[in-house]
Design brief:
The protein has helices at 42-52, 78-93, 103-107, 128-196, 202-216, 219-237, 243-263, 269-287; strands spanning 3-7, 14-23, 28-33, 56-66, 72-76, 113-117. It is an alpha+beta fold and 291 residues long.
Amino acid sequence: MTGYASLTPEGETATVTVTVKSVNHRFLDLQLRTPSSLAGVDARLRALVQQRIARGRIELAVTLQSRRQVVMDVEVNDAIVEALSAALDRARERGLVTGPLSPGDVLRFPQAVTVRERVEAAQEDPALGPLVEGAVGDALDELDRMRGSEGGHLRADLDGRRAMLGDLFERAAAAAEVGSQALRTRLTDRVKELQTDVSADESSVAQEIVRFANRSDITEETVRFRAHLDHWRLLSDAPEPCGRKLDFLLQEMNREVNTLGSKAEGRGVSELVVALKAELEKMREQVQNVE
C-alpha cells in the first residue's frame, strides 16, 4: 500500500528530518538513506521498519542539521601549488606571463585548496541515536495510519468482489448441476440401448457409468471453493498481514474454477467460468496492494 510521512523533531544538538514513503511491492524492499554520522543506528532503523511493515517498497531518508558551531579546515595541496609555481616560472622565462603567483591564482584551481567541515565529537552525541529512532518510529506510525486508511478502501472493494465471486461460482455450480441432470438422462438412454444389444455386457455399462461420474461430478471443487471463500474472510479479519496468503488463496480458487470448467456441462457454464476467471484476475491485481 502507498503512504507518505515526514517529521522534523528538534533535539538539543540537532534538528532531525525524517521522510518515509511506501509504494506497492510484492515483498519488503527497504531503501535507507542516512548521513554517515548515523551509521551506528542503521541496523536499528531497519529493524524498526521490519517490525512495522511486511510488504512494500519503503524509502526512508534521515537528514541532520547540527546546531554546533561549524569549524572549517583549509588544506593546501603543496604538490599542486609547487607545480603551478614552476609552470609560471617557465612561462615568465619565455615572456608569456608577468608577476608572481598570487593567492587568487591558487584559489582558481579547486584541487590546490580544499575547504572541509571539521568532524568533531559533537556529531557523535549519544542522545542523537534515540532522537532519530523516536522520529523514525513516529513517522512510521503516521505512515501506518495513511496506509490503514487506504487499506480500508481496499478491504471494502475486495469484500465486494469476494461476494460477487461466490455468487458467480454458485451460479456456475447450479448450471453444472442442470447439465449433469441432462447428461444423466442421456446416459440412462444409452444404458437402455446397451441392454438391448446382445453383444453388450455388464462391463460396458460399468464403463459408461464411470465415465459419467468422472466427467460431471464437481462436488470436491464446490466444497473446496466455498472453503477458500470462508478462509478469505478469516484472513481478512485477522490482525496479521495477509496479502501473500490472499494471493496464494486466489491461485487455489483459480485452480478450482479451471477444474469446474473442464468437468461441468450445461448452458451458460462456460460464460460463468470466463466471468469467474476475469474476476479472479482483477482480485489478484488488487491483492498486490495489500500488506
